Amino acid sequence: NLEASVNRRAFIRISGLTGAAAVAAACSPAAAPAGSGGPAPTTGTGGASKAPWENEWDELIAAAKKEGKLCIQTLTGVGYRKYVEAFEKTFGIAVEHRADASASIWGQKIIKEQEAGIFALDVAVVPPNSALSVVRPTGAWVPIKPLIFRPDVVDNKFWRDGFAARFMDKERNLAFNWEFDVRHSVAINASFVKEEEIKEFPDLLKPQFKGKIISDDVRTGGMFLPFTAVRKKWGDDMARKYLTEQGLVFNRDQRQIAENLVRGRFPIAFGSRPTAMTEFQQQGLGKDIKWLDIESVGFVPNTSIFAVKNAPHPNAAKLFINWFLTKEAQQLTADATPTVSARTDTEAGYPEGKGSPGKKYFESGNEDTYESSEATRAWLLTVVKV
What we know:
- By secondary structure, the chain is α/β, with parallel strands linked by helices.
- The chain is 36% helix and 12% strand.
- The protein is built from 14 helices and 13 strands.
- It has helices spanning 2-5, 20-27, 52-67, 78-91, 103-115, 128-135, 151-154, 224-234, 236-245, 254-263, 278-282, 314-324, 327-336, 370-383, and strands at 69-74, 94-99, 123-126, 141-142, 176-177, 186-189, 213-215, 249-250, 268-270, 289-292, 299-300, 304-308, 362-363.
- Strands 1, 2, 3, 4, 5 and 12 form a six-stranded mixed β-sheet that branches.
- Strand 1 (69-74), helix 4 and strand 2 form a beta-alpha-beta unit.
- Helix 3 packs across helix 12, helix 4 (78-91) runs antiparallel to helix 13 and helix 8 packs across helix 14 (370-383).
- The longest helix is centred in the N-terminal third of the chain and has 16 residues, at 52-67.
- The chain is elongated and about 65 Å long.
- Mean pLDDT is 89; it is low at 1-46.
């Protein structure tokens, strides 16, 4: 379940959070740049000279405070609550925080409310797949793009591949993806396999690696995602040969996959997750385990922000959306969840998920890929039958 997988890291680390006062100072249009320790420069003799967007920002804050409330939907996890609390403290606006584990819960809740004419929700921060394929047909979302106006948010330089590339829906105006946490599918035990031996997917088919690869079961979970990218770049024949002729050993237990990798029983693992390695690393083991940054098998399970139709607190919703996408709020979120923001001026809160600049990883939340992803899911069942 992609929605649930986002939560896998919430227990690892909650660190690096800025204080609410720091967030407020950084996000206030009258504040100095972060770290300057002083007021913003002024021009003329009549006080500060503000840009039009800054006046709009001030007016938006005032209007949102009059509404006095925001209702937001997220997934479950302590990290999500951290940025909700920061917004509350920054602007003095009470937040009703709804947190659910999967789309089968939050998606149906939103659909039923909209159909019943119950308009309680303002904003949703959820994976786009179900939000677009299941919830959107009910008309629950409205375009979020027209609501975003801060120049430090809409400028292309602040986002991986540019601002427009962060929209996951085909219309490019509903689902803004702020997250870019790359899942590096291939891990090696460097005591047995050298990094330079595996640069791309075809290298996994080398004769010396036959019988030495342990893999998460490609018929379950999200393993169809990397193979969607593999089929697109390398073709079905190569993907089939890897799956059927390299003597893969499938295992659905992430801990067992990690242990086999650490012990060197299988020096290559496909689909292993860094979180499963934590137990062994705490024992001083697994120091030679490395996740390879292979473009065609790395994938990104996205999380997007949505604006809700008939939001009862439209100004608070607009304020949250713009604040949430600033550098300061994105850094707070990346550290708290932890994850990696798609903003180019933030540090990875989860270093293992950092991708290389310029590489085109498969983004599973992009609506343009949904059809091919489902086709790969079905294809894998025909190839791996045991």
